């Protein structure tokens, strides 16, 4: 129980930083000044606030946010300011200052899990070889390929030499063609799947099929050729754009808003260790 | 541009055809090539991960920090604290131990907690502008501004119709996904049904787009085989 509580506490603390960083303003609200920049010197920034000039001393704790044309704020150094910029300046609450190091911490921590995948694969393939399972030689090839990949990876970013050549060959003539070929194989799977899916049995299936055909034909020249004599709004490329940017984008937004609420709810359950299930209920 | 050696083109063509051999039937060559692809990918990305993430973000700050510590705690010594992250990172590997499995839960918990924290920020920052944009005027001018308090652009029936469909679709889809109560009341039931039809239009569009993407990749492969390898055309 103590272990479980400790892990719940660690989980809570890890999420707490990001939560606070989001809800706490980057500068102390009651000491933050908003206005238009009049002049900037290494010692102070002069702002025009409600028609009156106000000097703000440049201190190490001062945080300045400039309003972008879109209205979104960007953090800038005082020396980057120009007269006429709309800014808000005040003492930092420190939380946002730590965002990059904390992000780096979690990126590094997550990256260290990478070896687990390698170990898992190595365990599966070495088991295949030891027990001489069917096609065990495929596992030997796997280990050779891992070695080849590591050697090629060492040439990443190299200016010249055989390592760079190995990197070019592995990346350009093995990995890239193989991954795009596997990716394109799905076109054939989808063709057979669509045959089953598009047998029009209901109104919904008919709608789905019509929409898919409009989008597919609208993106190839034959679509324009077939409908070029019709009024512009009945031409397939125009209809495809309408389906994508009005009907599809609205339906996707409807789904996204639901997903947003769901993601926040699931996030809260994880953060507060309220989640239950096989992994979370297992005894420690 | 660098000259491509014929053997390199042959190599790419052989692996491409080897994987396409799966279209005839599942075979040993295909499975062997999948092992090659996974092995190369794992080995290659392992080194890339080191070079692009762990080396610049962890190893270099840590070694610089230790150099500063051995230099009489010179400025930058705090970088040596990255060693603790390294120790924390090793906890992942207790997944392979039955006795000390719980230690790996510490880093899993930290990662889940941080992920949950990021979700609040990410979801709200990503969706708030979209929610604001979804409130479109139902009677709109040609530039999309509302009839009252908008610009001087003329009233546009096309824009208004599009906005009505856009807002209506969002409402119908959201009603369809609203499961907190049973869809018994006729207006809710009909709205949800309309939402399901509109979702079908959307799924069809997704399907069409995905097929076109895969086809584009297939055509690129075909172009390589015909033009670069066989030199046809």
Please outline the helices and strands.
The complex is a heterodimer of chains A (284) and B (233).
Chain A: H1 2-23, E1 33-40, E2 44-49, E3 52-57, E4 62-67, E5 73-76, E6 86-91, H2 99-111, H3 114-130, H4 136-154, H5 162-197, H6 203-218, H7 221-227, H8 236-271, H9 278-281
Antiparallel strand pairs in A: 1-2, 1-6, 2-3, 4-5, 4-6
Helix pairs in contact in A: 3-4, 4-5, 6-7, 6-8
Chain B: H1 6-20, H2 28-70, H3 82-90, H4 101-134, H5 157-176, H6 186-229
Characterize the structure shown.
- The complex is a heterodimer of chains A (284) and B (233).
- Chain A is 60% helix and 13% strand.
- Chain A is α+β, with helices and mostly antiparallel strands.
- In chain A, strands 3-2-1-6-4-5 form a six-stranded antiparallel β-sheet, with no helix packed on it.
- In chain A, strand 1 and strand 2 form a beta hairpin.
- The model of chain A has no long low-confidence stretch (mean pLDDT 90).
- With 233 residues, chain B is mainly α.
- Chain B folds into two domains: 7-76; 138-233, no CATH class.
- In chain B, 71% of the residues lie in helices and 0% in strands.
- Chain B has six helices and no strands.
- The mean pLDDT of chain B is 92.
- At the A-B interface, helix 1, helix 2, helix 3, helix 4 and helix 5 of A face helix 1, helix 2, helix 3, helix 4 and helix 5 of B.
């Amino acid at each position: 129980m103590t272990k479980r509580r400790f892990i719940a506490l660690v989980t809570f603390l890890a999420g707490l930083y990001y939560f606070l960083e989001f809800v706490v303003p980057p500068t102390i609200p009651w000491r933050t000044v908003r206005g238009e920049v009049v002049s900037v010197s290494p010692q102070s920034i002069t702002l025009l606030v409600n028609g009156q000039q106000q000097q703000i001393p440049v201190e190490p704790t001062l945080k300045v946010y400039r309003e972008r044309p879109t209205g979104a704020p960007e953090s800038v150094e005082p020396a980057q300011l120009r007269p006429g910029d709309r800014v808000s300046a005040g003492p930092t609450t420190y939380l946002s200052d730590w965002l990059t190091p904390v992000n780096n911490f979690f990126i590094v921590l997550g990256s260290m899990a990478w070896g687990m995948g390698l170990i898992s694969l190595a365990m599966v393939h070495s088991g295949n070889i030891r027990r001489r399972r069917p096609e065990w030689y495929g596992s030997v090839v796997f280990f050779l390929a891992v070695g080849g990949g590591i050697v090629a990876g060492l040439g990443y970013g190299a200016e010249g030499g055989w390592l760079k050549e190995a990197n070019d060959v592995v990346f350009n003539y093995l990995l890239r063609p193989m991954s795009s070929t596997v990716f394109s194989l799905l076109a054939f799977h989808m063709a057979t799947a669509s045959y089953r899916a598009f047998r029009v049995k209901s109104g919904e299936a008919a709608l789905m099929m019509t929409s898919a055909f409009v989008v597919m034909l609208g993106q190839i020249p034959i679509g324009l050729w077939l409908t070029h004599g019709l009024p512009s709004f009945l031409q397939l490329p125009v209809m495809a754009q309408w389906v994508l940017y009005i009907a599809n984008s609205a339906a996707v937004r409807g789904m996204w808003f639901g997903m947003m609420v769901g993601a926040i709810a699931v996030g809260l359950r994880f953060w507060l260790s309220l989640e239950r299930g096989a992994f979370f209920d297992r005894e420690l | 541009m660098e000259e491509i050696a014929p053997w390199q083109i042959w190599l790419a063509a052989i692996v491409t055809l080897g994987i396409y051999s799966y279209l005839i039937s599942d075979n040993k060559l295909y499975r062997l090539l999948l092992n090659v692809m996974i092995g190369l990918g794992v080995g290659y990305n392992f080194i890339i991960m080191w070079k692009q993430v762990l080396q610049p973000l962890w190893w270099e700050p840590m070694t610089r920090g230790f150099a500063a510590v051995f230099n009489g705690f010179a400025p930058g010594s705090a970088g040596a604290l990255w060693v603790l992250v390294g120790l924390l990172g090793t906890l992942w590997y207790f997944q392979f131990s039955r006795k000390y499995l719980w230690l790996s839960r510490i880093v899993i918990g930290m990662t889940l907690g941080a992920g949950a924290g990021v979700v609040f920020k990410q979801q709200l920052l990503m969706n708030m502008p979209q929610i604001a944009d979804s409130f479109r005027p139902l009677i709109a001018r040609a530039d999309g501004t509302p009839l009252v308090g908008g610009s001087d652009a003329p009233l546009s029936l096309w824009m208004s119709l599009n906005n009505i469909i856009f807002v209506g679709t969002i409402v119908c889809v959201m009603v369809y996904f609203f499961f907190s109560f049973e869809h018994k009341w006729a207006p809710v039931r009909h709205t949800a049904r309309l939402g399901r039809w509109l979702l079908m239009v959307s799924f069809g569009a997704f399907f069409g787009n995905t097929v076109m993407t895969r086809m584009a990749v297939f055509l690129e492969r075909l172009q390589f085989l015909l033009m670069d390898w066989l030199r046809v055309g």
